[in-house]
Amino acid sequence: MKQLLVILTLMFLAPTVQAQADSLEAKIVRLLEVSGARNQFLGAIDNIIALQRNAASADQYPEGFWETFSQEVHQEGWKDIQPLLVEIYRKNYTGEEIEFQLAYFEDPIAQGLVAKQGDIMQQSMVVGAAWGQALGNKITRKLSEARQDKN
Q1: Distance between CA atoms of residues 106 and 32, nearest Å
Q2: From CA 25, how far away is CA 79, in angstroms rounded?
Q3: pLDDT tens across 64-93, in order?
């Protein structure tokens, strides 16, 4: 009799647990949108494609290749990575933490901050690239000086 009660209890609780899991997944998907994670992912794709496009000879590829490829990766890339990100969020955050983040990121001020992230990232990349180039030049100069001092 106890086994029957346990089985019946589990049968009634299983849909509730699954609904809660589905609800949490929907909240995480919403969080990925409002926090700007999706846009950051797509921005990173654009940067990677731009680097590849700049490195390639223009006459190597048919007209419109890069635009078509970019659209394809935008659509498929997010569909591929979103479930993986949902699982990471599910493993690392409680439902309460997800709720808190949603409340924060849905606030108009937070949305203003999120809207500025793309520009800040682009500007930071320019500064970082210049700094990295200067560092590379410094390393080259220091190595040259060290070789001259050795001789």
Answers
A1: 11
A2: 14
A3: 899 999 999 988 999 999 999 999 999 999
Cα–Cα distance between 29 and 84 in angstroms, integer? 11
CA gap 124, 134 in Å, rounded: 15
Say what the pTM is. 0.65
Amino acid identity of residue 90, one-letter, is R
Phi, psi of 36 (to 5 degrees): 90, 5
- Distance (Å, rounded) from C-alpha 3 to C-alpha 77? 47
Give the C-alpha separation, 73 to 80, whole Å: 10
d(CA 79, CA 42) in angstroms, rounded, equals 11
What's phi and psi for 62, nearest 5 deg? -65, 155
CB 125 within 8 A of CB 47: yes
Per-residue pLDDT of 115-146, as tens digits, reads 998 888 888 888 988 999 999 999 999 999 98
